[in-house]
Hints:
With about 150 residues, the chain is of the alpha+beta class. The protein has three helices and three strands.
Amino acid sequence: MPRSRLSSDGGxxxxxxxxxxxxxxxxxxxxxxxxxxxQSASLAVEGxxxxxxxxxxxxxxxxxxxxxxxxxxxxxxxxxxxxxDAATISISCEPDPRDCLARHGYVTVTVSxxxxxxxxxxxxxxxxxxxxxxxxxxxxxxxxxxxxx
Length: 149
């Protein structure tokens, strides 16, 4: 029995391929964009905490140590395009919290940043953008050869 021209499937494969391709391609592209944004921010937060801790333990005194750590924190986040105003830094010291630069002491720097997801519409975000919060902690030991004033 011959097939009629009206019931032929000729040419529909390309239409199906484009439709299925778009349905699958758009989420994959968004996933790649979101994951690259999160990975970049993750590297920024980790680098910022590590550099701030290193700079802190090499400073001459406590006040210059804090300002140097803050500067290193802002610089590291700016390298990766992360807004430093949306991030926080906290510094703690052991064993004596009053003397962070004592010999054999440990300085712990914690950096936390909130990274907005890309391409999120304003209708979904309500009062603030959808974001992922990332945190990193780095600890450095003050040198045992440090000369105390």
